[in-house]
Design goal:
The structure is a single chain. By secondary structure, the protein is an alpha/beta fold. 39% of the residues lie in helices and 16% in strands. The protein is built from 29 helices and 31 strands. The strands form 7 sheets. It has an 8-stranded parallel barrel, surrounded by 7 helices. A 7-stranded mixed sheet has the order 6-5-12-13-14-11-15, sandwiched between helices. A 6-stranded mixed sheet has the order 8-2-1-9-18-17. Helix 25 links the parallel strand 29 and strand 30 (794-797). The longest helix is centred in the middle third of the chain and has 34 residues, at 356-389. The chain is globular and about 85 Å long. The two termini are 60 Å apart.
């Protein structure tokens, strides 16, 4: 086979040598624009797992690479004068120049032709290689193509040979038999065939410069500097040793910090000098070094480009490495991905022989295999990249939480994974978190008691007689409610006792104390009769209360008959409803430690539909009712077009919410939640997708929030001051023209100012055209952003399924509570089982179930003994 590799970086060289090693008869040519020693950049990083892949592919190369490694186990985080160390991370670094030299020598020894200072400006430049052959060549089995500048050899799109079932041999054509585009982020091959590869390039706003230093770091080191010399900004360095004399030193910051420091006006020499001053305390007098291409010296700062492609191969041209995908440098996987691409591609082509169809099938198999792995790593890299792009968001966290958030940013390193890596480190974090939770709860209790003593609110259950007094009480209680600041969460002295898992620490909202951080998410059951909850709701919610969760949230309970989604929705608009709900509330209070929250909402334009299992969002065939919304915009085709609400409609709906609030007091609920998410009535005012009004309730966000805030304020005035309220919001519409992220933060801040104690952060369901990005904990980033930018406590929700995830979310400060829906459907006792799995024996069980508790704990211990991980 005659193979041309465009690009002599790690991906191209490694593929070339593996291909030649697999079959010396292959003619493999590498074309590289730079000279053999013109290497820009500093060190690259590999994990221990990656080395195993290299060993299996080519032991000789792996041994030589390993002989040049600088290894480290620890990660050091320097922030706010504190150094926090976590061990067990097992990475190795090597100079990029050394890595390339090893690959060049091995490739040359195997017979790969290396052509340096040979720039490929397009596929036409490869025509000279087409006639060189690769171990014999038959006649072309298909017509030569006419793509771009020179075509793609035999063009199988003609289809005649394939249709006849013939095996087409490789041979002479206008291109080599195989073209491997390993020419990096700015791939000329990918650009020429963009119509086929369909690249998606996302240039990020953060800035970075890749430097080196003779200061040798003993660990992978993260350095954070906030507001240096009066500059309004946060700057970070990623530093690691990669040989006996040098460390890589990457300086990064958000664009606002970059401009504030004047970096946008500095050339390379000015940038190096400024960075030396910025990080002088850690450089210990050692200089920063630059190895920058000449054309970048005038503007040395870069913006990371995330590369994706819809396809990785077209005819006999295939992408590998950065030409196919990129992963942010903060997870150190770019070179790993590139070299593992090379392994996979060489392996796939191993059985193709001289058959063109077999080669094309091999390219398709390579694409399928590697695209999945690349997407997985890119998702992790995206999480990591966004964390570093938004360090301003997290710099206000206490050092312990800041470092934990950094370590778990990509979701590849979990809470229990950290325990396996460094149990002493995680034990310290858990003790810190538990001490902070205890201290914060005690402080909140004192503040709430002071606020209650000063208020004129009537006792719970009697309502609030005077609206002005209620407003004053609300303001006082809101001031006493938890603000997510370092001052409000100051840790108590660290204890040496075994701390509870973070998910089993208490959390307080006003006068309400939750036993743990687990929430049973609101889930519509569509099983009520005329709005009245029945035995099903008693068993459904009662079982989950017995299951150990700290907070139970009811399904969206509608404030009027025409505010229901379906005829099966629960309501809170008739006296009989309050009595039926009180039956559920009393069971929860009598038989569990859980607290129960009533979620109130109005379906708006998404009402008058069938039961979920009869047709989601399908209009009722008979017995329907007229629906109304902010604007006459149907959620999707086939649904009713709602009529636009008038001011009289708004007054009526506000009164309905207040009436439902008073019924909730009579029913004994501990907490109240207003549903402003998922495209229902109030959500329809907030999202620009459903609000097209031209009056004071449409247009700018302040106008779109006007009516939802009016409803909330009226409810808050009627709800006892010592009881908390939450608001559920859709933080994104998952569309380009929907609610932007900064508006989601503003929405949360507005409700917080109006008296909300916590935001329940969901997403989407506001447009049938939405394109959500699903995955583990896929909505948690929105909770993270709102909590840490708006300073508002949050509930995270969305594909949170494991105790490990709950622990990581709350410990990192991405949320204060975690709501789980589907896990509670298949396991009502999810929280009790989680406690047993984590070895937290202090979790109370219903006394009626204690024998089951002991049996479960023994079973888990036996399984641990069989795995050799018992703690006994």
């Amino acid at each position: 086979m005659n193979v041309a590799v465009v690009g002599g970086g790690p991906a191209g060289l490694y593929f070339a040598l593996l291909m030649k090693k697999a079959d010396p008869a292959h003619r493999v040519t590498v074309l590289e624009r730079n000279g053999p020693d013109d290497t820009f950049g500093w060190g690259v990083v590999f994990s221990d797992q990656t080395l195993g892949n290299f060993e299996a592919a080519d032991a000789e190369t792996c041994r030589e690479i390993a002989d040049h490694f600088a290894r480290w186990d620890d990660i050091d985080v320097h922030v706010k004068g504190t150094v926090i160390t976590s061990g067990g991370h097992g990475f190795s670094g090597i100079a990029r120049r050394t890595l390339l030299a090893i690959l060049q020598r091995r490739a040359a020894a195997l017979g790969v032709e290396l052509r340096f200072r040979h720039e490929v400006r397009g596929l036409a430049d490869l025509a000279e290689l087409a006639d060189l052959g690769g171990g014999g060549g038959g006649e072309a089995g298909g017509e030569a193509g006419g793509e771009g500048g020179g075509g793609l050899g035999q063009d199988v799109r003609d289809g005649r040979a394939a249709a006849a079932g013939a095996a087409v041999e490789l041979g002479a054509g206008r291109l080599p038999d195989l073209v491997v585009a390993a020419d990096g982020v700015n791939s000329v091959v990918r650009r020429e065939l963009a119509a086929h590869f369909q690249p998606d390039l996302d240039v990020r706003s953060a800035k970075y410069v890749w430097l080196g230093t003779t200061r040798l770091f003993d660990a992978f080191t993260f350095l954070f500097v906030e507001n240096p010399e009066g500059i309004d900004g946060v700057f970070q360095a990623h530093a690691y040793r990669f040989d006996e004399r040098h460390s890589a030193f990457i300086v990064e910051c958000d664009e606002a910090s970059w401009r504030a420091a004047g970096f946008d006006r500095l050339d390379l020499d000015g940038t190096v000098a400024a960075c030396e001053r910025l990080f002088a305390p850690w450089l210990l007098g050692r200089p920063l070094l630059a190895n920058t291409p000449p054309h970048q010296r005038g503007a040395p700062w870069l913006s990371f480009t995330r590369v994706r492609n819809a396809r990785w191969h077209h005819d006999n041209v295939v992408l590998i490495g950065d030409a196919a995908h990129t992963a942010h440098f903060s997870i150190g996987s770019g070179t790993k991905l590139a070299m593992e691409d090379a392994i996979a591609l060489a392996r796939a082509l191993g059985g193709a022989g001289r058959c063109r169809q077999a080669m094309l099938a091999a390219l398709a198999a390579y694409e399928q295999e590697r695209m999945t792995e690349a997407l997985r790593l890119q998702n992790a890299a995206r999480n990591s990249m966004e964390w570093f792009e938004n360090v301003r968001r997290y710099i206000r966290l206490e050092p312990q939480q800041f470092a934990y958030s950094l370590l778990t940013r990509s979701q590849r390193v979990s809470h229990e994974n950290l325990r396996r890596r460094d149990g002493a480190y995680l034990g310290g974090v858990e003790r810190w978190f538990a001490g902070r939770a205890e201290a914060a709860a005690a402080a909140r209790t004192a503040r709430v008691e002071e606020a209650a003593a000063a208020s004129v609110a009537e006792p719970a259950g009697a309502g609030v007689a005077d609206a002005a007094s209620a407003a004053a009480a609300t303001a006082a209680a809101t001031a006493a409610a938890p603000a997510v600041t370092a001052a409000a969460t100051a840790a108590a002295p660290a204890s040496t006792r075994e701390a509870p898992p973070p998910m089993f620490t208490q959390f307080r909202l006003r006068g309400l104390t939750l036993a743990n951080r687990v929430v049973v998410s609101p889930m519509d059951m569509y099983s009520a009769e005329d709005g009245t909850p029945n035995d099903f709701h008693l068993v459904h919610l009662g079982a989950r209360a017995l299951g150990g969760a700290g907070l139970i949230v009811t399904e969206m309970t509608c404030v009027s008959p025409t505010g229901r989604i379906s005829p099966g929705c629960t309501g809170m608009y008739a006296d009989g409803h309050a009595a039926a709900w009180r039956r559920v509330v009393e069971f929860v209070h009598r038989f569990s430690r859980a607290r129960i929250c009533l979620q109130l909402g109005h379906s708006g334009g998404k009402g008058s539909t069938r039961l979920m299992w009869e047709g989601m969002d399908e209009p009722l065939a008979t017995g329907g009712w007229e629906v109304m919304a902010a604007s006459p915009v149907a959620y999707r085709a086939g649904m009713q077009v709602p009529r636009e609400m008038t001011r009289d409609d708004m007054d009526e709906v506000r009164s309905q919410f207040v009436h439902a609030t008073r019924l909730a007091i009579a029913a004994g609920f501990d907490m109240l939640e207003l549903h402003c998410a998922h495209g229902y009535l109030l959500s329809g005012f907030i999202t620009p997708l459903l609000n097209r009004r031209r009056d004071e309730y449409g247009g700018a966000l302040a106008n779109r929030l006007r009516f939802p805030l009016e409803v909330f304020a009226a409810m808050r005035a009627a709800w006892p001051a010592e009881r908390p309220m939450s608001v559920r919001v859709s933080a994104t519409d998952w569309t380009e023209d929907g609610l932007p992220g900064e508006e989601a933060v503003a929405v949360a801040a507005a409700f917080r100012q109006a008296g909300a104690d916590i935001l329940h952060v969901s997403a989407g369901q506001t447009s049938a055209a939405a394109q959500p990005v699903y995955g583990r904990m896929f909505q948690t980033p929105w909770s993270d952003r709102i909590r840490n930018e708006a300073g508002v406590p949050t509930i995270a929700v969305g594909n949170i399924t494991e105790p490990d995830q709950v622990n990581a979310i709350v410990t990192a400060g991405r949320a204060d509570l975690c709501a789980l829906a589907r896990p509670h459907l298949h396991d009502p006792h999810w929280t009790l089982h989680a406690a047993a799995e984590l070895g937290f024996a202090e979790q109370p069980w219903p006394v009626q179930y204690l024998s089951g508790k002991s049996q479960l704990e023994r079973s888990i211990e036996r399984q641990a003994e069989m795995r050799g991980t018992s703690t006994v």
